[in-house]
Design a protein that fits this description.
heterodimer, A: 242 residues, alpha/beta, B: 225 residues, MetI-like fold
């Protein structure tokens, strides 16, 4: 089943054309890694999928709902799309537990007890059971990012978007976050990941998509894209990063 | 008359004056908080008309002296619309409108200081614009603005002295009345000054306490990461 359909996506910031017509279909349970040089439009592309950036033109369909429709109920659709940010963006004035229970209680009208029980389960999944009562500022970057993943999962999303989730982390904690994401992928979550972790992309992705200058240059199995890139620009990029 | 006899004789009047000063300050500031927050939300609203109304209000208040505003409300507005208004009511209206405009800008500064990522995270979870504002942005913004809000409170408390011009017997007015009778301006203005000083000193100590409480509730240092 198709989870995500993106057709002819364009995004301009003023006269600056960041996305120049991109198409992507994502199957249920598929893990997609978006790679490419910085400034190529990967993050903007990802942010168009849950309409944090409004596309200038094109269509995005997530789980059967057209998010680019003018009359779309964005809040309801976004409940279904989890997002993890490079800078974590945890709510600093709330404890870890309240960070996770906030949206389910606010949007899904879950009872506090139910929301908290689910939050404790999720914290166990990301390996931070004992941190439920802490404030984000007392956690390391890697711990904060794992809480952010738990927070997104608390809404039971059908799709998870990751925007360079390990780029702001110290090298020694990157592995913890990737381990959680790997677990999620194994559990069958549909994921779209913007990443610079080529090793992770090669290992976990079902499909790697190389983006440059606002277009999808090449996509395929990790072994194809990394092993035998077809396009000159892909080869030039991989030479620099691998 | 010695200084202490003077003080003893004028103390009851001063206490009455201080009570009125406190009444003016507290009521005006409470109303001003609501006006400030309301006009701030209007100001940052995407609805152009609301933004425009708030901008007009803020610019007019900030662009004219409180003294003129006070005269305008007490004499001008009452005359033009055939209203009757006590000096106390007029004073409260003038001070609330005045402080409200400054608080509005203070609140806006606080809200805009919260990183965009906070709103994005809330919205990406499915929270509405309003819920994100109330549950995520405002609680953080209010913490940031406490020092500036306290500062505005201090300014407003001192501005109550201007309200004496419409015949309200608050501290400053009481002072001039006693001087008119005793000609002891040096001592009386010192006493008046001490009263204001004590009120404001107590307020700033209290606010430090509140600030400490709030920062404790959020963990030692906050990195808004």
């Amino acid at each position: 089943m198709l989870k995500v359909q993106i057709q002819n996506l364009h995004k301009h910031f003023g006269s600056n054309e960041v996305l120049r017509g991109m198409d992507l279909d994502v199957e249920e349970g598929e893990v997609i890694c978006l790679i490419g040089p910085s400034g190529s439009g990967k993050s903007t592309f990802l942010r168009c999928i849950n309409s944090l950036e409004q596309p200038t033109d094109g269509m995005v369909v997530v789980d059967g709902k057209v998010i680019t429709d003018k009359h779309a109920d964005l809040d309801r659709i976004r409940e279904n799309i989890g997002m993890v940010f490079q800078q974590f963006n945890l709510f600093p004035h709330l404890t870890v537990l309240r960070n996770i229970t906030m949206a389910p209680m606010q949007c899904k009208k879950l009872k506090r007890a139910d929301a908290e029980q689910r939050a404790h389960e999720l914290l166990a999944t990301v390996g931070l059971s004992e941190k439920w009562d802490c404030y984000p500022s007392s956690l390391s970057g890697g711990q904060q990012q794992r809480v952010a993943i738990a927070r997104a999962l608390a809404m039971d999303p059908a799709l998870m978007l990751f925007d360079e989730p390990t780029s702001a982390l110290d090298p020694e904690v990157v592995g913890d976050v990737l381990a959680v994401m790997r677990k999620l992928a194994k559990a069958g979550m549909t994921m779209i990941i913007v990443t610079h972790e080529m090793g992770f992309a090669r290992e976990v992705a079902d499909r790697v998509v190389f983006i440059d200058d606002g277009v999808i240059v090449e996509q395929g199995l990790p072994s194809q894209v990394f092993g035998a890139p077809q396009h000159e620009r892909t080869r030039a990029f991989l030479e620099k990063v691998l | 008359m010695s200084f202490f006899e003077l003080l003893q004789e004028s103390l009851p009047l001063f206490l009455q004056g201080m009570l009125l000063t406190l009444q003016l300050s507290v009521i005006s500031l409470i109303i001003a908080m609501f006006i400030g927050l309301g006009s701030c939300l209007m100001n940052i609203s995407k609805i152009k008309v609301l933004h425009w109304i708030a901008m007009c209000y803020i610019n007019i208040i900030r662009g004219t002296p409180l003294l003129v505003q006070t005269f305008f409300i007490y004499f001008g507005v009452t005359k033009a619309f055939g209203l009757s208004m006590t000096a106390l009511t007029a004073g409260i209206v003038a001070l609330s409108l005045n402080a409200g405009a400054y608080l509005s800008e203070i609140f806006r500064g606080g809200i805009e200081a919260i990183p965009r990522g906070q709103t994005e995270a809330a919205r990406s979870l499915g929270m509405s614009h309003g819920a994100a504002l109330i549950k995520i942005i405002l609680p953080q913004a209010l913490r940031i603005v406490i020092p500036s809000v306290v500062n505005q409170c201090i300014i407003t408390i001192k501005d109550t002295s201007i309200i004496s011009v419409i015949g309200l017997a608050e501290l400053t007015m009481v002072g001039s009345q006693i001087i008119a009778r005793t000609f002891r301006s040096f001592e009386i203005w010192i006493i008046v000054g001490v009263f204001y000083f004590v009120i404001i000193y107590v307020l700033s100590k209290l606010s430090k306490l509140v600030e400490k409480r709030l920062s404790l509730a959020q963990g030692a240092d906050t990195k808004f990461a």
